Amino acid sequence: MIPFNKPFLTGKETQYIEDAVKRLKISGNGDYTKECHNFFEQQYGFKKCLLTTSCTDALEMCAILADIKPGDEVIIPSYTFVSTAIAFIRQGAKVVFADSYSDNPNIDASQIEALINSKTKAIVPVHYAGVACDMDAIMDIANRYDLLVIEDAAQAITSRYKGKYLGSIGHMAAFSFHETKNVIAGEGGLLAINDDRFVNRAEIIWEKGTNRAEFFRGEVNKYGWVDIGSSFLPSEIISAFLWAQLENIETIQSKRLQHWHYYNNQLKEWAETKGIKLMPTPLEETNNAHMYYIVCNSIEQRTSLIAHLKANSIYAVFHYLSLHASDYYKDKHDGRELENSDYFTNHLLRLPMFYELPVEEVVKCLKSF
Ligand SMILES: *Cc1c(COP(=O)(O)O)cnc(C)c1O
């Protein structure tokens, strides 16, 4: 059986968790958490990092920091995970959906400007499959209209755009360490802040609206309730697990990239004869091998390909259902057709991708379709 995803363990996870437990510092913001923060700040050029219990939580923190209020509008792609939307909806925002490019599920930057009005507060590009959105165009629009850019970089760890790490370009960014991502902690996330204006408040919101972090640094002589917030920080058990993964991030990424290139090289001819499109080959700097997807020529073809693989105990899965057409939002959406998002909803298929993947077997099975 070849699953779609299998979490990869480096072997040190339980050792570091045991260590955290033995130190009797099990709650959040201990040594492992700080190690992870330093790692991200130094490696990727994020100004301030805070681990969270999920990427969804990190996005919720972004929505609070962006001061999103009822009636505000936020522009997001329709082809994305629910979390990109609900983080802002919870603050009372209206999400305005933009379409994808025709050959790439990322937000079509050329459509964004027409969606902006006086209520617009932020743009949330999602780097689908870890491949960079058109960040120059997006930052240019944001600067001209004085909007915030919040990168949903859930899938984008180690990936770059014009030499800059994804997550370091917008005002803030959110990453995920869910077990389906490249680097994992079971459930876990990271808020990266690049704009100094948000750093202090982020620490406060992270720890239940208190100035506890400043207190422990000796910057204030008592700590108390100063703002809204929640318990967004993960326990040391999660940070210890994540640290074992971060120590091995290069090994993890190079193995995934090997699989990615094997798919891409081996499937070209086959795809052509079947009328299937392979995912567009990203520039090397923006390929983190989070995913390998193909785009089938019809929903029927995709259904039979999934069945063929499944009959051989190989599990491939489609991905998002356009959010503008979801049960929750279809009546709230403004009625615009988003045909590229719907196209990927119906045609995109993700192939198995994980560290220990026997990629040759998957390719062989695809070629027998
Ligand atoms: C995985 C994912 C999320 C959610 O991450 P969690 O850590 O599970 O909250 C959000 N957005 C995108 C694009 C994702 O792929």
What does this structure look like?
This protein is α/β, with parallel strands linked by helices and 369 residues long. The chain has 2 domains: 13-246, Type I PLP-dependent aspartate aminotransferase-like (Major domain) (Aspartate Aminotransferase, domain 2, 3-Layer(aba) Sandwich); 249-367, Alpha-Beta Complex (Aspartate Aminotransferase, domain 1), CATH 3.90.1150. The chain is built from 13 helices and 12 strands. The strands form 3 sheets. The chain has a 7-stranded mixed β-sheet with strand order 1-9-8-5-4-2-3, sandwiched between helices. The relative contact order is 0.17. The model has no long low-confidence stretch (mean pLDDT 97). The structure holds pyridoxal-5'-phosphate (PLP). The site of pyridoxal-5'-phosphate has 14 residues, from helix 3 and helix 4.
Summarize the structure.
Belongs to the DegT/DnrJ/EryC1 family. The protein has 369 residues and is an alpha/beta fold.
Question: What key phrases describe this protein's structure?
Answer:
single chain; 369 residues; alpha/beta; Aspartate Aminotransferase, domain 2; Aspartate Aminotransferase, domain 1; 2 domains; seven-stranded mixed beta sheet; three-stranded antiparallel beta sheet; 13 helices; 36% helix; binds pyridoxal-5'-phosphate
Bound heterogens, unique: pyridoxal-5'-phosphate
Strand content: 5-15%
Radius of gyration: 21 Å
Q: Helix/strand/pairing class, anyone?
A: alpha/beta
Q: Mean of residue pLDDT?
A: 97
